[in-house]
């Protein structure tokens, strides 16, 4: 084994090798453990380990500072110098970087920077796996088949710079997705959870929830396309709010290209987006949703900059009491737009609604639809943030406070910004798993929303 093998040593050695005017090195030490099952039986399980090293070289020139970024996996000490030289060559071959800034400095070092990386293992499922086996037995006895997977990842990120930053963040990330199907596969129901350690996930409770939904689906009702009062569960709200956040770069808004652009110029900052007193916010220290307290940028774009690596990330309200409060800025785009620096964060919370559960909201519904989740979401029009997508794994008709059956699936056409302006009720905020974006964004807490006229634009034949 190489004597330079620890992540912090790899970072330090890469910085020593640098001949550029500036250098940022990011080492991501990744481990994962997973379980998969089908037909009430475990099918596979596995554990993986990996390392990705990203070197960002900056080179000053007469016309400005250029940057070059090179990332490689499974890096050993013998790979370091070629990797550093490749980043420097990329910087010298590039033109001046538009987002060039002085590298961040003055951030106190992480006390655990030299510690070994955190790792996950199959032990994370020590309590979950037996409970899952019990759920299989109950599902089989009840005439249900369970399918799904559980995945736990732990990434230790080490960030070092030529300006003296030495930062480290450990990010656990767990997801559970569970499908229950009738034996003839004509009925399907889904539930998902986000977790840091699988200690707060109860597969038995999820199976019971899915059994109820499969029972609702025994009666089938066909409905035409149209506008319906609709209850969006937290998972569906999360998918919509995450896309809204991803679309809230300040520069795009100032340049008139997004739903947050003001007609005639400027942005909609300060405008009311919802009559409900809702606050959409991010906070690296949000309990149960903790994320990196500093910028980790492997590439640059309008909402991120490699020059901002290590910049502290604090709590921020994107929408406060229903009004647009902040848009995402890097140090560069903050300078262009005159807005405060507001880097994106790794979690998203919508709160300020009521205390009622989704079940209580159903009980007070005279007639409407209850969704399970959304999927295959795509953007139609950035100027209005109009999105299209499909419902999946259960759309249910509610009459006089009770679910009376399952209806067909739909394609929808809606803008999350417009939905906020029309929502008439928000329920209790709870941690949820966004189904569509769970490969990229899992740390969310949302309420259910009641929308009086959700646009189901056409009927879908999906399950």
TrEMBL record:
Residues 226-457 form the Metalloprotease TldD/E C-terminal domain. It comes from the Bacteria. Pfam families: PmbA_TldD_3rd. Gene3D superfamilies: PmbA/TldD superfamily. GO terms for biological process: proteolysis. One of its GO terms (molecular function) is metallopeptidase activity. Residues 164-192 are annotated as: Disordered. This is Peptidase.
């Amino acid at each position: 084994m190489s004597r330079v093998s620890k992540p912090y040593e790899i970072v330090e050695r890469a910085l020593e090798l640098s001949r550029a005017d500036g250098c940022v090195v990011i080492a991501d030490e990744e481990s994962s453990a997973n379980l998969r099952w089908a037909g009430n039986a475990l099918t596979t399980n596995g554990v993986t380990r990996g390392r990705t090293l990203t070197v960002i070289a900056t080179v000053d020139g007469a016309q400005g500072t250029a940057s070059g970024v090179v990332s490689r996996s499974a890096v050993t000490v013998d790979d370091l110098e070629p990797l550093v030289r490749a980043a420097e060559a990329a910087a010298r071959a590039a033109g001046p970087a538009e987002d060039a800034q002085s590298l961040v400095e003055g951030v106190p070092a992480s006390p655990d920077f030299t510690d070994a990386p955190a790792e996950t293992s199959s032990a994370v499922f020590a309590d979950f796996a037996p409970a899952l086996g019990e759920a299989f037995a109950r599902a089989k006895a009840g005439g249900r088949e369970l399918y799904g997977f559980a995945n736990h990842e732990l990434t230790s990120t080490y960030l070092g710079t030529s300006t003296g930053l030495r930062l480290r963040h450990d990010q656990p990330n767990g997801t559970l997705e569970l499908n229950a199907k009738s034996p003839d596969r004509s009925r399907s129901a889904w539930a998902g959870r986000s977790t840091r350690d699988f200690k707060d996930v109860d597969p038995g409770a999820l199976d019971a929830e899915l059994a109820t939904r499969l029972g609702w689906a025994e009666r089938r009702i066909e409905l035409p396309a149209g506008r319906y009062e609709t209850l969006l569960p937290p998972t569906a709200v999360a998918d919509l709010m995450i896309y809204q956040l991803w679309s809230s770069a300040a520069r795009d808004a100032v340049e008139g290209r997004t739903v947050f652009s003001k007609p005639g110029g400027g942005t909609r900052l300060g405008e009311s987006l919802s009559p409900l007193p809702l606050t959409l916010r991010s906070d690296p220290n949000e309990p149960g949703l903790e994320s990196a307290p500093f910028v980790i940028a492997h590439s640059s774009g309008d909402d991120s900059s490699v020059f901002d690596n290590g910049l502290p990330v604090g709590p921020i309200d994107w929408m406060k009491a229903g009004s647009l409060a902040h848009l995402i800025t890097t140090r560069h785009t903050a300078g262009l737009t005159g807005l405060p620096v507001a880097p994106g964060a790794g979690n998203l919370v919508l709160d300020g609604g009521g205390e009622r559960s989704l079940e209580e909201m159903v009980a007070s519904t005279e007639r409407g639809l209850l969704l399970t989740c959304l999927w295959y979401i795509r953007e139609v029009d950035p100027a209005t943030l109009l999105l299209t997508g499909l419902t999946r794994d259960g759309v249910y008709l509610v009459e006089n406070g009770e679910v009376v059956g399952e209806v067909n699936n739909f394609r929808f056409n809606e803008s999350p910004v417009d939905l906020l302006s029309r929502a008439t009720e928000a329920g209790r905020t709870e941690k949820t798993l966004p189904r569509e974006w769970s490969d990229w964004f899992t740390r969310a807490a949302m309420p259910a929303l009641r929308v009086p006229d959700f646009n189901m634009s056409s009927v879908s034949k999906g399950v």
